[in-house]
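Consider the following assembly input.
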Amino acid sequence: TRDSPGSDGDSVLVLSDVQKRYGTETAVSGVDLTVRDGELLTLLGPSGCGKTTTLRMIAGLTDPTAGTVTVAGDSVAGDGASVPPEKRDVGMVFQEFALFPHLTVAENVAFGLDDPDSEAAAARVAELLELVGLEAYGDRTPDDLSGGQRQRVALARSLAPEPDVLLLDEPFSNLDVRLRVKMREEVRRILKEAGVTAVSVTHDQEEALSISDRVAIMNDGQIEQIGRPGEVFEHPESRFVASFLGQAGFLPARIGESSVETPIGSYDRGLLKGVTEEYVGATVDVLVRPDDLRATPTAEANADGHVVRRQYTGPSFVYHVELSDGSVVRCLHNHAEDFEIGEPVAVALVADHTLAWYPSR
Ligand code: ATP
């Protein structure tokens, strides 16, 4: 049986100081990563941060310039090893699914099996089609399937040979928005049911946070932070991670003996996570997300700022308020307020948790 996500199961994939340089350009500058048995880990980061290059080095499609990759205890790259992709027990689901159009769904799924015409293969294909909910579609060709169904076939095909590690490169980018949200849940269910160890790559934070057991946030060829979705979202360790996740805003604050002074008033110093004596007198930037702040109408004389924009997001409303120091913060409201643009408002901190902060730039 597999370990539950987050537990200290055996590590199936280990990257040690993996680097990739192209001439003078560094794509990946030193990645250390351990993925546990049965875990779904997502590499998340902006375009060009090295996610795809990292995935390709695990797959064997790109050779690392330095460092080592170990899959299920076997050294596959670095330290003299250079195992080709087809000899690694690593499966890959590509963005465009890469199904064979002239083969049926069942034939596509059987493709990676040692003896695709055998009875054992037929049984395995049936098992996989059931897992992905396509029992009735085995005889169709990919052209006669929806986008979501094609993705399920791609997943079934890559799971069929029971890879030690499954890699997913931007797996939802070819699906429309609604289907994407539905397939996230479905792909997670399938991976968990298969018990496979998986690494996916995305630049979509919502996707990463919703499907993963752990998320590794990459920046500039390195992993900046790695942790459970709630951990990285609630406790971003760097300004980069904070800025990348959620609708982050930063409130300038001067740290006093027992209070912090901000453009929206004075608050207890205990509000700042882990702040110590040595920071007294310093100015820092406090991470505030829209749900940490609320605006109320007030007279000009008492205003913290002015409403500069209203954003309707469906279930909620976000009001952008420009503070006296020129910074703009966003306030999340569950109901429409009748704020006019330019209206003076008081902004209050309603966070029920300590706030992360970073040295001012
Ligand atoms: P995206 O989300 O846009 O796919 P990414 O995070 O996957 O981005 P990579 O594709 O890994 O980023 O690229 C990382 C860096 O390495 C980029 O600056 C890219 O230009 C560079 N790079 C990638 N492949 C090559 C190559 N074959 N030759 C030269 N430079 C490359």
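The longest helix spans residues 177-194. Ask yourself how this observation constrains the way the partners meet.
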